[in-house]
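Table S4 entry, Protein YtsP.
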Amino acid sequence: MFQAAQYKGTKEEQYQLLIKQLDALLDGEPDEIANLSNASALLNQFLEDVNWVGFYIWKQDELVLGPFQGLPACVRIPSGKGVCGTAIAEGKTQRIEDVNAFPGHIACDAASQSEIVVPLFKNNEIYGVLDIDSPSVGRFDEVDESSLIQFARTLEKHL
């Protein structure tokens, strides 16, 4: 899962270390764009088999592209459209094994085969989403989902 050879332990333990690193990295920094940028870079550095890691921010009734690591991406996504828009409309994490089987999937990068999207909240209001794509079908499992939700909750403390 993680590229860095110094990480030992179970997948859950590796994620816990990553979440602690995120919290320490963002501690004391009030700028949201800086924090989102570092969070996407941290995830991109440590997650294997991903081709896009980033954020969309909820602005004026649509998601707008935020800091990310990867190829250029779709700039605006309406609520209810694609995996990201569905996460916003339903207010819950979307873990999609095969994006080509997802009704209304928005193909920003044709290489993406699976995706996980975690909604972000600020002051109990929707803030945006964490979006991670993989070129492999079925890349994300239950451990990824629960751990990335914890990652998102930690990030929210710094928004």
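The CA atoms of residues 54 and 68 lie 4 Å apart.
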